[in-house]
Known about the structure:
Strand content of chain A: 25-35%
CATH superfamily of chain A: D-tyrosyl-tRNA(Tyr) deacylase
Largest interface: A-B, 35 and 35 residues
Oligomer: homodimer
Amino acid sequence: METSARIVIQQCLAATLRLNPESEVSEAEYAKIKQGMVVFVCFLKGANKELVEKMVKQVLAIKLCEGKDGKLTSITDLPGDLLIIPQACLGGKLKGKSVQYHSIINKTDGSDLYRTFVELCTDSFQQNSAMQEAGCVVKSGVYGNRQVLNMETNGPFTHIVDF
Amino acid sequence: METSARIVIQQCLAATLRLNPESEVSEAEYAKIKQGMVVFVCFLKGANKELVEKMVKQVLAIKLCEGKDGKLTSITDLPGDLLIIPQACLGGKLKGKSVQYHSIINKTDGSDLYRTFVELCTDSFQQNSAMQEAGCVVKSGVYGNRQVLNMETNGPFTHIVDF
């Protein structure tokens, strides 16, 4: 089966994403999370809303977070924060010394799917009383913007999942 | 062709990897780099030294670093630092809610190939007079240890390359 989407998951103790740079009229804006997962998302040609639903279920259930007892658990059961970062370059393919991006979905559809991904994660967090009590949040980057990220980890524990 | 190795490349303005935690008898040790690339490396079954040579050539030549003029260039031409991090979990495959690691090479061979990878990069840096004049360094993590990483980026610009 052709890959239609790709995510990279890294663990963090804290992460800060700059949403907008400082300008003459405003200060820089940041999205910050505490302990949890940073999820980089890339949609390729063929991705659709059904796939996004499947991806979100997997992301919320995958046991890659280190719990207090050292055992791996899901972000939902940790519970922890989620930072979702659009990262179209994940769909790049090495060609000689350069990378080509022919497989990536067009910007309009990619932006729609990304927004859906973030909304579904946010809904799921809001419907989970344990996560709400713990004050867990979903933060996200801006599709198409440069993603200026600072991350503190206890081991990034990087995983790649293709859909 | 079966994948025998996988790397994830992220750009950084600075990165710090903890090599050893603080203990009763010694302070924590860190590997630090300035602007350059963080390369996560995973060897799968079937990887060998010839493949490592090919991987190193690609890593040093791939144009994924942002030069002063905004154009993409290689780490060699930037020139910049390199932080090489062993990351066996990149070879994991999602199975239900858990990740399985059956494809990963055994620890002895993986450790050997990782050392070769770091040595070849270091040799290449040392043979390049422009990199030497700029004080560029290759730093690396310890195979099998937990990789405690802090990273500051101007956009991680994450790429995955399979070999």
